[in-house]
Amino acid sequence: MVQFIEIYDNEEEDEAYVANSNYVSDILDHEPSMSSSIMPSSALALPSYRSDCNAPNSTTSTTLSSTVEKSRERLMSEIEDTIEHMFTSIAIGELCRLPMTSKPLPQRKRKRPSAADATPSTDVTTTHDSSTTGTANAASSNDNTRYLSLSSSCSKTRALARYLSVLQMIYEAIAYKIMLTKRDMYYRNVELFGKQSVVDIIVDDISRHYNVPRSSLNVSAASKGLVFGPIIIKLKNNKVLNCSSSNSITDTDDEQGILIPPIHQVVQVQCKAKCMIVVEKEATFRYLVSIGFCQSLPESCVLVTGKGYPDLSTRQFVKYFSTHFTLKPILALMDGDPHGLDIYATYKWGTRVMAFDVFNLAVNSIELIGLTCQDRQEFNISPQCLIPLSERDRAKCLAMVRTYNQDETPGQSQLIERGWQDVNTELASQSHQSYIKEINQLLASDHKCEIQALNHNGPYNLTNYLIKKLAKYI
């Protein structure tokens, strides 16, 4: 049986499952078919968004996959058509099958088919839609179509019930103009879904199938990212978030940042800062806030953290900043380890899970300022602060630069998996070459280093480090 990856808001957990796919359970219990998308070609047409002015090459951003905002009435109509298709099949006595476009599956070992597997099944059949050509095929050549059906198989019928249940909740949320969280959806029928990750997968599949952002489905995840600095966020409910001070309406009283709201709730952002610094860890973020780092700069900055691998709201907020404040640099402050580099890549090039919407999420203009292997010598980091790479660390580094044939450039397959189509342009960019170089230097040194190591020789060494780094940008 083909295995499906579990989808988490925490990309680190997703990375762990991909790295060891033999332990991923088939939690949806239905059959995949590699084919072109079955949804109408009009739904696959890319919108004419304004290209990211900070991107090194405008042709790159215009060839990225993206979702399309649809009107409430149109989306409800498409969901109604889906449900009608199901019940029409049942009424005329046909095998009830629901094609559901889903994200491409990552490469993994597949069990060699046995003689029994080669026998045609009466429960689920798969077909290839050869009529979809041109732009549609170019945008979805790696799409999968999952066929959900009523059958004698309990697991396949349960998978169909799961999708229909989620569609019902989404339809009601859109109709009544209310917001749902994925957690709330799970708790509405714990027995049916079994685990939270099942709901996460289905919501992403439905988002991809109708080619809309998750916010159009009126579904959100709990925010975890924080923002601090001279920036004011105005929301649709008329609330105003002053991110440079404690604010009672945000339920924060420690003056350690404001929770980043879902981007669809944002009406306007006002920013007086000269740049944004995206910080990997919450501990580093809170340290910089507590010592008044933003206020100490002659030209202040905005601090953002996704607390490790960022959630969707944090990535959308950084993307919003990049497109509305094109002259303000966005800088990444990460640990000098494999996860720090991968989190930087998540912001810059996106993820496999959301590859179908990379245009609206990836921030190609973000630049890595540290902590690099070269910084260890330039800023006199003590050798006792260096940590030997574990086997898992080395495996992660190798996976980030793995090539599958002699003609492939390191990082090429990884960009394709993240949703990039103009790969050659990105591979030739200085930022990607520096990224690959940093991974190789990390492997060669056989040691990693956390950002807190800068404070080993004094409590304000991290501040001095950042001031020197920022001199190039502000």
From TrEMBL:
Location relative to the cell: Nucleus
InterPro entries according to UniProt: Meiotic_Spo11, Spo11/TopoVI_A, Spo11/TopoVI_A_N, Spo11/TopoVI_A_sf, TOPRIM_Topo6A/Spo11, WH-like_DNA-bd_sf
Keyword Metal-binding assigned: yes
Family indicated by similarity: Belongs to the TOP6A family.
SUPFAM superfamilies, alphabetized: DNA topoisomerase IV, alpha subunit
Compositionally biased region (Low complexity): 115-145
GO terms of biological process kind: meiotic DNA double-strand break formation; meiotic DNA double-strand break processing; reciprocal meiotic recombination
The protein, known as: DNA topoisomerase (ATP-hydrolyzing)
Protein EC: 5.6.2.2
Residue ranges that the Swiss-Prot or TrEMBL entry lists as coiled coil: none
Highest taxon above the source species: Eukaryota
Enzyme class: isomerase
Alphabetical UniProt keywords: DNA-binding, Isomerase, Magnesium, Metal-binding, Nucleus, Topoisomerase
Domain annotation Topoisomerase 6 subunit A/Spo11 TOPRIM: ranges: 276-470
Domain Spo11/DNA topoisomerase VI subunit A N-terminal: 159-219
Molecular functions (GO terms): ATP binding; DNA binding; DNA topoisomerase type II (double strand cut, ATP-hydrolyzing) activity; metal ion binding
